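Reproducibility note. Readers wishing to regenerate the assembly model reported in the main text can use the exact inputs given here. Chain order matters: entities are listed in the order in which they were concatenated for prediction.
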Amino acid sequence: MKRSSAGTFQDFYSLLQSVHQIPRVDVLLGYTDVHGDLLPINNDDNYHKALSSANPLLRVIIQKKAESDAGVFASNSLQRKKKGLLRPAHYRAKPHLLIGMPQDFRQISSIIDVDILPETHRRVRLHKHGSDKPMGFYIRDGVSVRVAPQGVEKVPGIFISRLVKGGLAESTGLLAVSDEILEVNGIDVAGKSLDQVTDMMVANSHNLIITVKPANQRNNVIRSSKASGSSGVSTDSTPSQQTPSPASQYLSNYSTAESDEEGDLVIESDGAPHYGPVGCPNGGPADGPLPPSLSPHSSQGSLQSLGSHDGSPGRGSVREDGTLLTL
Amino acid sequence: AKLLLLFTCLFFVCLLGFLVQARTMRRFLRPGHDPVRERLKRELFQFNKTVEHGFPHQPSALGYSPFLHLMAIGTRSGAIKLYGAPGVEFVGLHEENNTVMQIHFIPDQCQLVTLLDDNSLHLWSLKQHSGASELWEDHRFTLKGPPGSPPSAAQITAVLPHSSREVLYLGTESGNIFVVELPSFGVLEDRTITSEAVLRWIPEDYCNRRSCELVEALQEHPKNPDQILIGYSRGLIVLWDRTSLSISFQQLENLSWQRDGSKFISCHYDGSYTQWPVSNDNRQSLPLENLVPYGPFPCKAISKIYWQTTRNGLPYIIFQGGMPRASYGDRHSISVIHGSQQIAFDFTSRVIDFFIIFSSEPTAEFDDPSAMVVLAEEELIVIDLKSAGWPAVHPPYLASLHCSAITCSHHVSNIPLKLWERIISAGSKQNVHFSNMPWPIDGGTNIAPDPPQRDLLLTGHEDGTVRFWDASGVCLHLLYKLSTVRVFLTDADPNDNMNTMGEDEWPPLRKVGTFDPYSDDPRLGIQKIYLCKYSGYLAVAGTAGQVLVMELNDEGAEHVVDHVEADLLQDQEGYRWKGHEKLKTRDGPVQFEAGFQPFVLVQCQPPAVVTSLALHSEWKLVAFGTSHGFGLFDHQQKRLVFVKCTLHPSDQLALEGPLSRVKSLKKSLRQSFRRIRRSRVSSRKRRGGGGNTSEVRGILQEMELAPVQRKIEARSAEDSFTGFVRTLYFADTFLRDSSRHCPSLWAGTNGGTVYAFCLRVPPAERRMDEPVRAEQAKEIQLMHRAPVVSILVLDGRNIPLPEPLEVAHDLSKSPDMQGSHQLLVVSEEQFKVFTLPKVSSKLKLKLTALEGCRVRKVMVANFGSCKTDDYNENDLAVLTNLGDIQIISLPFLKLQIRYPCIRKEDVSGIASCVFTKYGQGFYLISPSEFERFSLSTKWLVEPRCVVDVPEVSSNNHTHSRSVMENASRKSR
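Running the prediction on these inputs yields the following structure tokens for the assembly.
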């Protein structure tokens, strides 16, 4: 196909049907974007978006409509995608009510552990996807006022000093300038220097959970009101669907564990001497040409190559299985 | 099949739940509660800062005890260090951390008094405790003037410990001299010599003309302890017991007695010295001789002078300063005159103080000086006054580590005797110009056990030299110095001799000392060193991308150094290196002295600083890395095997070199200054216009209180310097499959990438015929993208692979090639163990995510138990950016113990730290001093020494004491 004359989604759809000789079969089209998310191709806009992400090849995933369900195009990771793809059709127990296109959105943040935290505190999880959006916040030293048995005392604290416009932190609406940072991924920051807290946050940036004491205490979760469950009263676009009480702690633990174990990307180059003018390996697979040896004869192998070329190093790595078995 | 799948899914979910539960439970388990392990830890690990090597930073005072043969050096930070025979040393620290102004040993005692710049006096003693001597502070004292007097009245300017050992004479700024008792520092008010009393006594025509001013010098008469020679700064000299008076018209600097007490000598501000006779008839004496040694033009002050008698009648006159002001006023000189011989020793830095070692026998008739010890600001110089030509003596300690700034260090433990002897022999050929005199400062006895092994510390310097230090024991001393400069063409001609001085030059200056902080060319700086102790191969890499491979040769030789270029950018285009150029090499054969001689030079292109280096002497390969990539060089065939570019295309900073960075920093600084100025101007304007002052104040406050902020951002592949190669490692391991092992090269970058290359090294018999081959086998991208600081392979028994040739020399067991190997990757943030050959993560320890600190240095160290001889284990010694040292177990990556070691603000200290293979380490506490520390209970190098009070002829002292008592009675 020529990039300049790509045509419309319908043209592409019929092209695929004829190429694969499945003229009357309804299929869903999908592609993995640079962040490793499986996104749908179902109109002209996302079709062109998909083409623009081709570099130069575009990996299109075709699935029979009957086999798939709405969960296919989930946000987050290829790990889920794998399950989704392999999930048998009859798994879907009840008819799915499709309201919009949730697959076009992805979770960027959540308020967690509402049930175990004091009402004045807020624990926010930031989901970082690739490098499309900067985390976008700065922290500084400051003085925190605490109520102690002896009266009010002043202790050093760490505060959010700035939110970058359009950054992840700002777009969540859950963090604000002057919010005091109490914990980073469950670790108390008291007694730690600004540089230490910075290092901790950067080290956890792929799955950052920060507990803050918001400067503005008017939007706190009122726990007695049962209406909103565990998700906070906020303007958050994606209220989390977590089950409240004991399980939520588990869930948060689990989710930490999950992204904790994000695998490192391993590229095996069997045989072919890879030194020499191979271009820049750091260039991120998204920029690099596909290596010739991409024969998906084993599921492992194809997964690796996927992992290495969907631009999301770490997700969908070799150790999908090993992740959970080895600690 | 679908059903099966479903079940499998369910099974996994269950398993997952279980694991989560297990993990949560483990989280709540308190670590470190195995009592057996806890006891073992106590037997293995112990943290001690044991000894400081090198030259004290900012020395400020010098003292010497002819009785103990001990020297004391005080520093501006309030430390005092005592040195005697090699291995005998003591350190004391004044709590106040004030500058030590003066140090005086109490005659015939193991005691000394220090004067600090806060006018406090401190009495220190050497006391024996469980067989070894220790330095303790006994008393402190601050002199108070009479009530109502100005503070200067009590400001001490001169201290004289009296030979009676019972009192100190303290000269002050007001001209009064106080006498205090020892050790209580009680002021004996009735013995105070007030300036009024002195003025009353001297003839009136003088006392009208000049007041006494401050006491510049106090000297006891060598024969008659009752008589104290007092020198006041305006030039009045009084022999107090009111016998003699000398008046010079020049401002006085210092005084010195002749041994027999018949004459004394004074030195003055105008560069003159004067000899005075001592008359006992209460009259003013006239000078015997008044001389301006470097006249007739105006001269600088002579600040100290000695008059030393000899058997042959010709005295040694030794004085500091006095140089012609206009032409040589900037020299730091000490002149020695002996008959017709005269040399003005020209030191590389300011002279703090000096003393003469002479015959201290009280019965000896002459001084017969043997050596002069000079403490300059940056080094200690000892001149042999007995040998012809007055050569310098090679000091066994107090080496000036920083004679050229240290740029890197490398420690090699347990050097084979053969190599040790060869290095010493090469070094001795360099030291022919030194005197053969045994070290003259030989007090005390070293009772420390002999060092268990021979250790070398190699320091790389900014001037392109590598110094080899004997780091086995307490005395770090120079064995051999290697210079890489000869390979290159530099502006300075190496043959040009600084000491070519005509016979008739005046003043007869002679440069002494090695301190030379000015590098001819910063590109010569040494950045990485790797020595193979078995083969004697040495690889040295520098600032301008130069990698030299050297071999030890016992003879001097002239040969051509082969030259190979390694283009690390390969075919990448559009890049421009704006950094420094590579060094120009010398064409044709070069003469090398005995020692390590380079035979090949690999020049990285672009000539960026070499950031990592590894040498495998068995395979005859050397690997090197810069911020652009890394390469492998076969030094047997002198052929480049491969290069690998690690750059990210968007990494402009790495491509442009260091200069552009400086430029951009300057630019941004300039911009921010401009911004501040602009806002100041605008705020002033507004104020002038009667605007809202609170608003202005707000702006100003904001400007002043703009807090330090830190950006929180995930690392990405596009960050700068991700391609910077941090570590290189050779290993014979299972890279491709678990049945065949092969040589491999591993490289880790700043961006968290690890590259593994499979190597094929031809067997020995065909080593010259077939090329070495390399293929990339693996590339690992660590998810957290933190810089990789170390890579290590553990064998089947979880033991780190031995060093090359270690097994061949029967010094290590062969590695276990049966069990599966494991790969340990240490990044700044995490420790991670992977299986081999399939690189899957096995376990990890997250440091930064949990503690907010990062790994700065890491090394495998072997720890032996102090209780049981046969137990030892390998652990990781880790230094973090907070200056903490942690010991982490292998292979389970459990934190064993943590010690605070270096202040976290001491960035250069942290950067300079090196660990040894047996749990010791070194770091720079100043540009010139290494602190040595030990993490092991078993390997501890620390001074242990005894200073005994030598037998003294007691008659002499009872005599002087009785005289003293008489004197005090008299004064009453």
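We highlight two features of this model. Confidence is low (pLDDT under 50) at residues 74-93, 225-261, 271-327 of chain A. Chain A touches chain B through 73 residues (CB under 8 Å).
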